[in-house]
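In the design runs reported in the main text, the only information available to the sequence generator was the tokenized backbone. The following block is the verbatim input for one such run; it is reproduced so that readers can re-run the procedure and compare outputs position by position.
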């Protein structure tokens, strides 16, 4: 049976990926520090859905602490070889990274260094790391190719992710560590992040609460459904060498369009409070996925209507406890 260490297992994508890998017959070692970057109750809910499943082992641990991480590896993987590390643990969200840059650089750079050192020491073949479309900054290109400039980040979040990409490249060059960098584009779906627009807009429409709209709403995002992203992460496990891939829907829509779609689906009009634009927000994201198709045969399958419908269904099913989640 294949064994995977999955960091950020209580996170939005980590929760879905854990479930997917367990269903595929993997043994999943899930790590997360369960921090309060956003309302912890949703992380606890996700973990409660996983704990007790066969072959899922969860440990609360902070990847920034080398001592704890080393001890964890020694205890679990000395005579029990891991096939891969998938690193999804990160401080997420662009706006908060202006207020608290230290925690972003600690988790998203030092945390990655701690993990790749152990990958190297324990001869773990595959290291898959989540990066972000935010590394493309203010690009005005029709869509973003992996060879495009990523040296002009607009946020500490983007800068920390770019730093992690470069750090991992050096590790590949020095130690021949196989590294796959996946640049994810605005992921949404059930049990999503309460600091992201699809979650906020859906919850607000259900509760008839007004939403804050930063800027004109004309900014576009390449919203990508979580199940598609999970399949992309899974397929990338086989790659060797150093690879960078975009995982994005390749069909951006504006925030205004997202609001209209959610209003239509939920049959509730969404009230809007206009707010000034955020300097960390990029105007547009869209993935060029030709290299992803070529290397792992991946293309997204879920259109925005279908994805939002599934997401709304989950919010309605979990309405009671979700009403207490802070957004
Ligand atoms: N969701 C998106 O739209 C998106 C887009 C681009 C990139 N990504 C990347 O994908 C990954 C997963 O994102 P997500 O949306 O699931 O975010 P998330 O915030 O829901 O999940 C990240 C998880 O990592 C954990 N974590 C953070 N720092 C940690 C540390 N030092 N030690 C242990 N655990 C720690 C958090 O508690 C959280 O549960 C992240 O690396 C993120 O940067 C996500």
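Verbatim output:
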């Amino acid at each position: 049976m294949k064994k995977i260490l999955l960091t950020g297992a209580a996170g939005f994508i980590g929760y879905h990926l854990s479930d997917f890998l367990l269903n595929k017959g993997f043994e999943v070692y899930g790590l997360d520090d369960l921090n309060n970057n956003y309302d912890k109750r949703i992380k606890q809910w996700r973990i409660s859905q996983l704990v007790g499943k066969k072959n899922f082992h969860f440990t609360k641990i902070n990847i920034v602490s080398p001592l704890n991480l080393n001890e964890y590896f020694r205890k679990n993987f000395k005579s029990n070889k891991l096939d891969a590390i998938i690193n999804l643990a990160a401080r997420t969200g662009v706006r908060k990274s202006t207020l608290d840059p230290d925690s972003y650089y600690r988790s998203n750079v030092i945390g990655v260094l701690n993990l790749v050192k152990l990958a190297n020491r324990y001869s773990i073949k595959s290291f898959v790391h989540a990066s972000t479309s935010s590394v493309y900054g203010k690009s005005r290109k029709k869509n973003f190719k992996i060879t495009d400039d990523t040296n002009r980040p607009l946020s500490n979040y983007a800068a920390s992710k770019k730093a992690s990409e470069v750090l991992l490249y050096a590790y590949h060059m020095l130690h021949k560590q196989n590294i796959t960098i996946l640049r994810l584009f605005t992921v949404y779906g059930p049990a999503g992040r309460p600091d992201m627009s699809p979650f906020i807009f859906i919850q607000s429409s259900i509760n008839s609460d007004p939403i804050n709209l930063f800027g004109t709403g004309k900014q576009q995002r390449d919203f990508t459904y979580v199940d598609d992203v999970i399949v992309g992460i899974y397929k990338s496990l086989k790659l060797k060498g150093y690879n960078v891939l975009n995982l994005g829907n390749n069909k951006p829509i504006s925030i205004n369009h997202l609001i209209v779609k959610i209003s239509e689906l939920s049959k509730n009009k969404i009230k809007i409070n206009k707010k000034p634009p955020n300097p960390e927000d990029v105007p547009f994201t869209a993935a060029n996925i030709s290299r992803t198709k070529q290397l792992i045969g991946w293309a997204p399958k879920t259109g925005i209507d279908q994805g939002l419908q599934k997401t709304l269904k989950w919010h309605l099913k979990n309405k009671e406890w979700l009403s207490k989640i802070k957004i």
